[in-house]
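Good day; I would like, with your permission, to put a structural problem before you. The record follows directly beneath this note:
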Amino acid sequence: MQAVATIHPLSVTDAACFVDLELSDPLARERDLIVAVEAISVNPVDCKQRMAKPRDAGAPRVLGYDAAGVVQAVGTGVTLFKPGDRVFYAGDVTRPGTNSGLHAVDERIVGHMPASLDFASAAALPLTAITAWEGLFDRLKVSAPPHAQPRKSLLVIGGAGGVGSMAIQLAAKVAGLSVIATASRPESAQWCRALGATAIADHAGDLVASVRAVGHQQVDYVLLLNDAQRNFAPAAELLAPQGGICSVLRVDGLLDVAPLMGKSCSLSWEFMFTRPAKVTADMIEQHYLLNEVARLVDQGVIRTTVSHVLAPINAANLRQAHAMVEGGRSIGKVVLKGWGQARGRLV
């Protein structure tokens, strides 16, 4: 099968950071699907994994944690899908990634693709939709559908990125929250408003002052998607009593969580690979979650967040996509679709 791999941890400024290869086709485990990958998207985790120290130096690593495609074969224990089904999913960080023509994935973390979308549009959704959904509904315990009056509020710090783009939609259009999104440029602010944000603040300066300037003295929930070390303290200050903060970001230093205690506030982390990587008892929840996301898309409640599409899937275009994501100024999701001719072969 065709694949794009990384051999050594290299910067995107190095043309050798990705290579086109031919690899052996994957074999299905009992509950695996073998998917013919039609489109993939790039997330910040892809960039981090590219630069991570490999366990086996010099061996090719296939990255990628978003895909849309068609089921080609199924394992002996599969019950949720059949060959020919169109699917989308975010994969498992402990297994080979989706930057390959064929990919093996456990059926319990795969959803039926939205019928109204093409492969490229669908590939933009899984990782960010799962992260935003789990962050809101599993970690922060946001009610869906809404029942609280007056309407509760959510601050999304980093609204125009992939996860922020999905979180704004799910919070505003599914949970009925009033959403304040942070954005530092006019085009990203416009993007957030179009997705359902009712107010825009700026995380580049005084976040507390900026949020209060748009009419919110405090907020009930915070999704921390940008610079946790810098933005945690202002998020904690803005948080209302009995509110919650959910972060998707690694923190290398110490956080002063004392301000949360007097307000009985919670702090949680969301890592969407926890369920598949730890094979949790509720791992199949990601299957149900993605099916619900597909239903919401097909009903026009939420939409894909694809903003750039590159073709075909090859080393040069994947390098360009990683550069766009690492640049920190991309809005929505960068997607690659279709396969070109591989230029190398690994025996």
